[in-house]
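User: Run a structure prediction on this.
Assistant: Running it now.
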Amino acid sequence: MRPLTFFIMKVRATITRIVQETPLVKSFLLDLGSADFSFLPGQWVDFYIATGGSMQVGGFSITSSPLQRGSIEIAVKKIPSGVPSVYLHERARVGDSFMIEGGSGEFYYQRDMGSSVVLIAGGIGITPLMSILRYIDEAHPDVEATLLYSAKAPSELLFWEALRAMAERNPRVRCALTVTQPGGEPWQGRRGRIDRAMLKELMPGKESLFYVCGPMLMLEDVSEALVGLGVTSPCIRTERWW
């Protein structure tokens, strides 16, 4: 397969599906019509939202593969201080249209960057990594992908069913999920944060390419742990989410 290409463009997107994925996250399927929209797996788009009196712009990572034509998917966490996210959660409906602009960002994957990829996500930080993982699963059976994903509670794990199905179908995709505060929710899996011990146990090798996305403290802790395990800084790519 030839390398993906992209250029930033602004197109109209229409919501065709809304799903309440977790208590605080909704996913949106956006029809792009005949627009020749392109992006790299891991990139994001800007949403231009008219909220009455002002135009608000919100950036959201694309969760679908760039091989999916004619539409893209995003997952949005409701953040009280974030006007665009609140609007999408409380007011957006199927059939609504918005202008979007992208793909944007330097946090992306291409096949020529490496054949072993480790994706490390905290909370809503799974969103750009899901795009990368879906692309690898669909287009590159020779690439080994390992996902380490942490959330506060089992009910906050995004894309759980899709991840499990992918790992069962593709022997080169591994998924390790952990929760930090399961509370009373049933959970038989790993507990605790993604730390040095978990990284040492599950990472295939220090020569892999590491993508880390999540809250700032997590980025700092995981990056420090990776360097301590012998991973060089050029092999670590990070993107901050809240």
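Residues 120 and 148 are 5 Å apart (CA to CA).
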